[in-house]
Amino acid sequence: MLQKEIINELVKIMGKENVITGREDLLCYSYDATPDVPDPLPDVVVTPVNTGQVSQLVQIARQYKVPLYPRGSGTNLSGGTVPLKGGIVLSLLKMAEIMEVDAENLTATVQPGVIIQDLNNAVAPHGLLYPPDPGTVATATMGGSVAECSGGLRGLKYGVTKHYVMGLEVVLADGQVARFGGKTVKNVTALDMVKLFTGSEGTLGIITEIIVRLIPAPEARKTMFATFTNLSDAGNAVISIVKNKVIPATLEIMDQVTIKTVENFSQIGLPTEARAILLIEVDGIPEVVEQEADTVLQVIQNNNGRVQMARDEQERDNLWAARRAALPALAQVKPTTVLEDATVPRSKITEMLLALEEIAEKYNLQIGTFGHAGDGNLHPTILTDERDKEEMERVHAAVKEIFEKALALGGTLSGEHGIGMAKSSFLEWELGAGGVGVLHKIKNALDPEGILNPGKMGFNGGTGHE
Question: What is d(CA 452, CA 465) in angstroms, rounded to the nearest whole number?
Answer without folding.
Answer: 14
